User: Which sequence fits this backbone?
């Protein structure tokens, strides 16, 4: 017998399926609306990003025409709001707000910080984009190494950061950044580990990551790197610390090798000592083009020293408080440097008073930073050599930018004299590990290891690690030598 379904059955089904349909439709609509909002947000931020970027480019153009104007031609402090116009139609799409700040040291502007906040008409306020850029001359701190001569990086070397030579490069170490030579080919001799004189590519060797090697590339102009020592001395006399010559005579002797010992302290001071005598430790020099094997006179080891006091009293009982406005120390003599660098410091060893005097910078101990976030930094510029002393730590750390303007950076070969030759091991040879965090610039060939220098192996530092300092590359100490006379953005980021 046929029975009718219960009343309301079809209505119930319609309600159930209707609810499912509404739920699915609602979810789909929500996804579509969310995606549409996201797309609108991306488009809005893209527009405001373009406006902010236009602000940076505008002020770069402004500074290229008015290098000293940090007030946008208004004569008063910012921020400055300007329209973001279409360059063809002149139609205004939005605006950018500029804030300009100059960074100064020792009475000179070292870089310019530009902050640009872009906004677009008819877009929500939350879509605004703020960009920051630092405008300055690029410096040697952009590199791990810059050498004006041919060089050999041994298999023990690990290098982080661009490595450049105006000569040829034998790269047996591990480089994790571009390795560039200004030569297409060069003559590799026994001094670079070649069994016979052979013509090699600008960069060659057994090191990995050879896809990073490039040659020939443009030279780094060492005449541009050269510091103006006369102007630096004037700036130090006016704003920083000037130390007159303490040694005497010329040539190589105990008297001519005297100078100052700077020990930097974490409390913002530096202890200044006069080095009155040194101990002669026979050595073979780093840059040895004549292949001299007879030990040479070396007065880099301090024997006696005492606290220095100056008149007028910038240095009292050996203590000098480094002013925040100028961390420049100019020494017209040899200078030993070590300690904990508390702020941005530049030490210069050069003599512009006495003809024929070319001071060296000596490194007897570790150089560290008290602030690892970028507030600390060292640039050491020598008119001649920068040398690691014979009594350097077995495991040594050097932080900073080291510039041997006309000489060499490295560590001489130290040992005991035996039948007219230097032998080791002894108390100065060999050493274990050298880590340089920063930049090495050397006019002549560098060297911190001597292959076969000891009867049982190599002399010098057995393991060497070089890494350029990213923070110093964008914010180096004052008067760090530049590699170009064209201003550019050395730092750029979205805030």
Assistant:
């Amino acid at each position: 017998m046929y029975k009718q379904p219960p009343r309301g059955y079809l209505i119930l089904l319609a309600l159930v399926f209707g609810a499912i349909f509404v739920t699915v439709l609602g979810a789909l609509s929500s996804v579509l609306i969310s995606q549409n909002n996201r797309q609108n947000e991306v488009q809005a931020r893209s527009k405001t990003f373009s406006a902010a970027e236009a602000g940076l480019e505008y002020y770069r153009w402004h500074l290229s025409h008015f290098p000293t104007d940090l007030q946008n031609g208004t004569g008063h402090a910012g921020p400055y709001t300007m329209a973001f116009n279409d360059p063809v139609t002149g139609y205004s799409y939005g605006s950018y707000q500029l804030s300009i700040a100059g960074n100064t040291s020792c009475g000179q502007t070292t870089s310019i910080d530009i902050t640009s906040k872009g906004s677009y008409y008819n877009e929500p306020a939350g879509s605004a984009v703020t960009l920051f850029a630092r405008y300055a001359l690029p410096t040697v701190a952009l590199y791990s190494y810059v050498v004006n001569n041919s060089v050999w990086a041994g298999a023990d070397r690990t290098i982080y950061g661009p490595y450049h030579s105006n000569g040829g490069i034998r790269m047996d170490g591990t480089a994790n950044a571009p390795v560039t030579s200004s030569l297409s080919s060069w003559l590799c001799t026994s001094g670079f580990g070649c069994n016979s004189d052979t013509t090699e590519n600008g960069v060659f060797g057994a090191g990995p990551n050879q896809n990073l090697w490039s040659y020939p590339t443009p030279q780094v102009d060492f005449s541009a790197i050269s510091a103006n020592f006369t102007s630096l001395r004037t700036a130090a006399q006016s704003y920083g610390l000037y130390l007159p010559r303490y040694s005497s005579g010329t040539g190589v002797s105990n008297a001519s090798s005297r100078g100052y010992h700077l020990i930097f302290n974490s409390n913002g001071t530096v202890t200044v000592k006069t080095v009155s005598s040194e101990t002669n430790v026979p050595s073979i020099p780093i840059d040895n083009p004549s292949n001299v094997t007879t030990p040479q006179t070396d007065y880099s080891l301090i024997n006696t020293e005492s606290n220095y006091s100056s008149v007028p009293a910038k240095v009292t009982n050996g203590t000098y408080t480094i002013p925040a406005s100028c961390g420049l120390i100019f020494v017209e003599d040899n200078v030993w440097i070590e300690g904990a660098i508390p702020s941005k410091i530049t030490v210069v060893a050069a003599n512009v008073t006495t003809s024929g005097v070319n001071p060296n910078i000596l490194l007897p101990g570790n150089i560290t930073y008290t602030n690892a976030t970028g507030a600390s930094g060292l640039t050491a510029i020598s008119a001649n050599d920068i040398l690691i002393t014979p009594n350097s730590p077995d495991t040594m750390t050097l932080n900073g930018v080291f510039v041997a303007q006309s000489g060499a950076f490295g560590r001489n070969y130290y040992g005991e004299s035996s039948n007219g030759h230097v032998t080791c091991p002894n108390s100065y040879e060999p050493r274990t590990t050298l880590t340089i965090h920063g930049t090495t610039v050397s006019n002549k060939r560098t060297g911190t290891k001597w292959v076969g220098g000891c009867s049982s192996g190599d002399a010098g530092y057995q393991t060497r690690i070089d890494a350029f300092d990213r923070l110093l590359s964008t914010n180096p100490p004052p008067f760090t030598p530049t590699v170009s006379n064209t201003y550019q953005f050395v730092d750029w980021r979205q805030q």
Notes: Helices lie at 9-65, 222-225, 229-239, 470-474. The chain has two domains: 11-136, 140-485. The longest helix spans residues 9-65.
